[in-house]
Design brief:
alpha+beta, 3-hydroxy-3-methylglutaryl-coenzyme A Reductase, Chain A, domain 2, 4-stranded antiparallel beta sheet, 11 strands, EC 1.1.1.34, HMG_CoA_Rdtase_sub-bd_dom_sf, hydroxymethylglutaryl-CoA reductase (NADPH)
């Protein structure tokens, strides 16, 4: 298969010797028209001290694949600021990969089931929730939801599927995290951070703060679905200032963070090693 692919694209691969030097790995690769690899530098951020619910703490490191200068140093500085107080509390509120399909109703009907239907006009947007163990589960839940929709359509002539199952509502894990940081490490004061209106205007606070570059780097290094970065970094940062202690508490909330430790790109050797580090 590799030889056929190389022959097919030989006219554009003449100068791609670095990309194609491991083209013989094709039998172990799960993508189509495999021609080789592109290298992304991997740096290690940390240590980050995380406080566990039982009162113990865990020292964690994050492999980040990126070509962006200073991102690793920035992450390390944030890790140092939080670890000095051992006040980082990450939690997972819900582990629930979902798919949402839209069914067009030709005649009003009523049914009861353990799913989440929402009627908008003459359409019913239905969310199906699943548990997928350690997998992100994006492919398996698409297949499962398609089969449910096929069963629904076959059981009645009064509806039709009118949207792709890729449209989703809150697809996977929900992660809020709280951080009380030693702000002298960041050379800032808590009051300054909390009162900084400019921080809101330039997206340091609120939705879509600059977490996409870090999330993307960790996703690539650990074999996650890089396309899921479009929804994963929709983080919401909220500051709370304690006037007595003059400390600021930052809460970073991820409504959806699609991650897994099995399946997809997590099967490759370097990604497995990165997951082991993490």
């Amino acid at each position: 298969m590799a030889s056929k692919t190389m022959a097919k694209f030989a006219h554009v691969l003449q100068d791609a010797k670095h990309i194609t030097e491991r083209v013989n790995d094709a039998p172990e690769i799960s993508i189509e028209s495999f021609i080789g690899y592109t290298s992304v530098p991997v740096g290690l951020a940390g240590p980050l001290l995380i406080k566990n619910p039982d009162g113990t703490s865990t020292r964690t490191y994050a492999p980040i694949a990126t070509s962006e200068s200073a991102i690793i140093a920035s992450c390390c500085r944030g890790c140092k600021a939080s670890s000095l107080t051992i006040q980082l509390y990450p939690t997972c509120n819900r582990f629930c990969p979902s798919r949402a399909g839209s069914l067009g109703i030709h005649k009003p009907s009523c049914s009861s089931c353990e799913i989440d239907p929402n009627i908008v006009g003459s359409n019913v947007h239905v969310r199906f929730d699943y548990t997928c163990g350690d997998a992100a589960g994006q492919n398996m839940i698409s297949i499962a939801t398609q089969r449910v929709c096929d069963w629904l359509l076959a059981s009645t002539q009064e509806m039709e599927l009118v949207s792709s199952l890729k449209a989703t509502w809150r697809r996977t894990k929900i992660y809020p995290g709280e951080l009380s940081a030693r702000l002298e490490v960041l050379r800032l004061s808590g009051g300054l951070i909390f009162r900084c209106e400019g921080g809101t205007r330039n997206a340091q606070f609120g939705s879509n703060i600059n977490v996409a570059n870090v999330t993307t780097g960790i996703f690539i290094a650990t074999g996650q679905d890089a396309a899921a970065v479009a929804e994963g970094p929709f983080g919401h940062l909220t500051p709370e200032y304690d006037h007595e202690s003059r400390q600021v508490k930052l809460t970073l909330y991820f409504p959806s963070l699609p991650v897994g430790t099995v399946g997809g790109g997590t099967a490759y050797e370097t990604q497995r090693e990165a997951l082991g580090i993490l």
